[in-house]
Amino acid sequence: MQIGLLGIAGVLMAVQFKSGKSEYGIYISIGLSLLVFFSIVSKLKVILDVVRQIGETIHLNTAYVGMLMKMLGIAYVAEFSSGICKDAGYQTIASQIEIFSKLAILVMGMPVILALLEMIGEFLS
Q1: pLDDT tens digits, residue range 44-82?
Q2: DSSP states along 75-104
Q3: Taken in order 47, 84, 87, 108, is the CA torsion positive or negative?
Q4: Residue 48: its H or E element
Q5: How crowded is the C-beta side of 29, counted as CA atoms within 13 Å?
């Protein structure tokens, strides 16, 4: 709730400044985005603990859980930085950040895909 109200107030301030000094609007947008980012990161520990407990309960390999968390981190940071680039008017850079993050997640997921294919091969033989 607080983040939502803070976001609305920040957007209203940024819109107000964009008409006169557009760089102030961008600075407010970046500052507000960083504030939201760090508030989410502070809550991330709870999510990580729950995912670890689920992994222990169903006996998942901890390497896969760690890899999943890294993928989520890449996706969040890429979306965050892409949004800032879009707000600043740099859509080309934003789309390249999004493409790079998708490729990075794909590369990180390759060992999981190979393990899955190996497991399917064992079941079929």
Answers
A1: 888 888 877 887 888 777 777 788 888 988 998 899 899
A2: HHHHHHHHHHHHHTT-HHHHHHHHHHHHHH
A3: negative
A4: helix 22-57
A5: 21
Q: Specify the pTM.
A: 0.70
Query: At residue 125, what is the residue type?
Result: S
Cα separation, 59 vs 66, whole angstroms: 14
What are the residue boundaries of the structural domains of the chain, listed by start? Answer: 1-44, 61-125
> Residue 104 to residues 40, 47, 59, 70: CA-CA distances in angstroms?
22, 22, 26, 10
pLDDT digits (tens, 9 = 90+) for 11-57: 788 777 777 777 787 788 888 888 888 888 778 888 888 877 887 88
